[in-house]
Fold these 2 entries.
Entry 1:
Amino acid sequence: EDEDEDEDESGGPMSLQHYARLDTMVTVVDSSTIFSVLQSIEALTDSTMGGASEQDDRTVCNLMIDQIEFANVILLNKSDLLGGKDSAKMKKVLGVVRKLNPKAKVYQTTKSEVELKSILDTKLFDMEEASTSAGWIQELLKPEHTPETEEYGVSSFIFRSTRPFHPTRLKKIVNGFGELDKKIAEQSGKGNSEQRSPFSGVIRSKGQIWLANAKDFPMDFHSAGKQLAIEPTGSPFLQALGPENWDEDEKKGVEELKAKGRWDETFGDRGSEIVCIGIDLDKKLLVQKLNDACLTDEELKAGPEAWKKYEDAFFGGGVVNYFEFAGFEEEDGDDGDDDDHQGHHH
């Protein structure tokens, strides 16, 4: 009987969740080094932290941001090394962390001293809520035209466009992310804005973009600190997928887009949406740079056949695989009906 009690319904061994609940997700941040970590490009596999698998290609910066975004409680430790809770440096750290995760409870600490009731038996953890706690998600959930608030120089903006990006022009501008040292040098009079990218103050970005030479597939756009990645999502735009392949959720999604005026008669749901979070951002300049990287009226009129010939600036020739959605591959014995197309949701 004892053995039966240690097995779940499938006959496998009982896991920890059968004996305990996940109560609180706590992240401890070293306030004195947070900006150094945000600029780090050190891979987890090369760090002294240990525990990373060879397949984990994240940087130390990626890991820190992931942990901040997922936490219920964040301890900003070593505040004393930055001059105390009321110092300008500490307020900047607080502003960054609150922007990365506006839902978390944040405590400034020395030697990680905090009341136990703040981290034990809080019943704060909820998986559904945790999956949407990241600041970039919260920004997208806000109604459009919500006034931006700036705290201690930390702010964000959302770039949206229904025009595709010209791949070569986009490649030229998306550099210099998270170069906070250059930003700080400029503020102290030791540098100038001409020596740095307008993206130097961006510490986190996330979204999807439409590249002209990847007509039918959105690309995932995300950065953490200095590391930027643009990667295929694997799922086509809904308009490319075709109404005959939409499931009920996708049909509702199309209706919502149409209600918000974000469905184009020609290109459907194709477009770009990027959230950028950073320090002392020149948002007007950043939006201008991104708009300039989109197709002009003349390029737009030239149409997809002309776009297809654009240089592949990001994927070494592989972008051709994302120009046109060719439909679903039918398995042997498929009767032709495609009622289930899992993996094609956004």
Entry 2:
Amino acid sequence: MAVSDGVGWPPSWMRQLAMAMVRCACGKEWKPPKHVAFVMDGNRRHADAKRVKKAEGHRAGFQALLRALGWSFEIGVRHVSAFAFAIDNFRRDPDEVSALMDLAEDKLEAIAENDTLAKHDVRVRVVGDWNRLPEKVRVAAKKAMEATEARKGACLDVFLAYAARDELATAVETMRRDLARGRLESEQVVEEELLKRTMNYGAPPVDLLVRTSGERRLSDFLLAQSAHAHLVFLDVLWPELSYWDLARAVLEHGMANSRKLEKSTGEMKSCIDEQFSSRNRTDNDHALVRAHATKTPKGGMSDTGSKQGEAQLASDEPWLQPVLSSPSHVQGLSL
């Protein structure tokens, strides 16, 4: 059975307006990041806040991953890396580790059937030290990879039993052995050769790395591959990640690349920061959609309905005002 991902919220017209705003802020040359990496932190704290078992927090984290994947591929991201389980995580309570392995087995089998991943033709790879994983997880990982290996549209790397320092140490050791056996010449011991031996070889360098939960650290994730990545640290817990959080990270990446820090862009970012500072967006968003829906005829939006809808947007979502006030703000959008 296909897995539902909930990517429909917020509705597509709102997501399109958000990306139009990002293009407006970053300039005509803006392009979405090719490779986004997620350090998915905060599942256990989410469970504690909800007073449920930690396993429930991890399940909520998986649903958040599905939503983030749908949003990312829709934006134009072509490669996503998700840090699901670190080698250090094996030190946690055995019951929690066991529950996480059960979840990994279940979700790896399900993710290959996910509608959104199929729609975007996404290949799944499971990256890490497979020798540390239970047999049942290895079997599920192999099935997910085989089921999606022919897909060419995009790629999802799920990192299980992974640590960047372990990865680099292993790469260096293989180079040492090849040197000793004459398979590698001393002049070939260069950065490019080292990167060829990393576990996710073939993936583009990380453009944007997003970590949730308020922690400001990389936690030994893709250290070599993220050498030039733009880092965004969000205070939101991973299961509570919203589209607006991702849009903000993409905007920050685009602004950093474009180096366009004019007054209008600064004002736009301030509006976004003010909007994103509130964690109570759901009621406001639902009210906005209801107001917009009442102005949308069954067969499509009329000019009058469009103007009324835009007026409501400008009132309820001031961070979109720079886009809505532009004569060409709807160019290329199907509202």
